[in-house]
Design brief:
There is one protein chain. By secondary structure, the chain is mostly helical. The chain has 9 helices and 2 strands, in the order ααααββααααα. It has a two-stranded antiparallel sheet with strand order 1-2. β1 and β2 form a beta hairpin. α6 runs antiparallel to α7.
Length: 221
């Protein structure tokens, strides 16, 4: 499931690229039907890349134990390297190249209308939120994945305290995304406050009440 998250983040980066730099083609490339297909394909790719576990483990009573893979040591190395490249390193690289390209070529021109400026600002904020999510996933996943890649060469060891510690860091990443959304996006933050029952009564915030009071005319009073 962790690798699916990485592929989804890469897909999100490409989606942002189309939205900002290729808006005319955006609706065609990211229609509802296409998005469902993209997500389905990502799950299929992840399942195929994880099939080596069927050959490297067996059930002994109620426990799963490791066994010698039928494709040998070099086959195991090739499988792990391919898996890591397709499911982690290449998606991460694609994500950062895409975000970097958007940041450099984000369109703007002098004399834009207020509506265009506000739209551009929302795009920047959304881009920042997506980039922070990708950064957290990359930082938390890179050490564990690198240990996994180096393990068949005898450089690192699966199940070592270092590997377990970095695995915990990878699991923590799942808890980080809601916090990133909350602190970088006003709309998410507002919905979190509602979810945590900070908004009570009729659901109107004090700022909204103050604004409506100030806009009342003498006749209304």
């Amino acid at each position: 499931m962790g690798k699916v998250s990485i592929l989804l983040v890469a897909c999100l980066a490409v989606e942002r690229w189309y939205c900002v730099l290729r808006p005319i083609k955006y609706k065609d490339q990211f229609s509802r039907k296409r998005i469902i297909i993209y997500v389905f394909v990502m799950f299929i790719i992840t399942c195929i890349l994880s099939m080596n576990k069927f050959f490297e483990t067996s059930l002994d009573g109620k426990k799963c134990i490791s066994k010698k893979a039928p494709y040998g040591k070099y086959g195991t190395r090739a499988f792990i390297i391919s898996y890591s490249l397709v499911a982690f390193y290449i998606p991460c690289l694609l994500t950062w190249i895409t975000f970097g390209h958007i940041a450099i070529h984000l369109p703007s021109s002098p004399g834009e209308s207020t509506e265009s400026v506000n739209k551009r600002r929302r795009q920047r904020l959304l881009l920042r939120m997506c980039a922070l999510t990708a950064a957290a996933l990359t930082i938390c996943g890179f050490p564990s994945q690198t240990i996994y890649v180096l393990s068949p060469f005898g450089i690192t060891k699966i199940g070592s305290p270092l590997h377990k510690g970095f695995n915990v860091l990878l699991f923590v990443n799942s808890c980080m995304n809601p916090l990133i959304y909350c602190f970088t996006n006003k709309e998410y933050r507002r919905e979190f406050k509602k979810l945590l029952t900070f908004h009570r009564g009729n659901g109107i915030s004090p700022e909204t009440e103050l604004g409506s009071t100030q806009t009342q005319t003498p006749a209304d009073k």
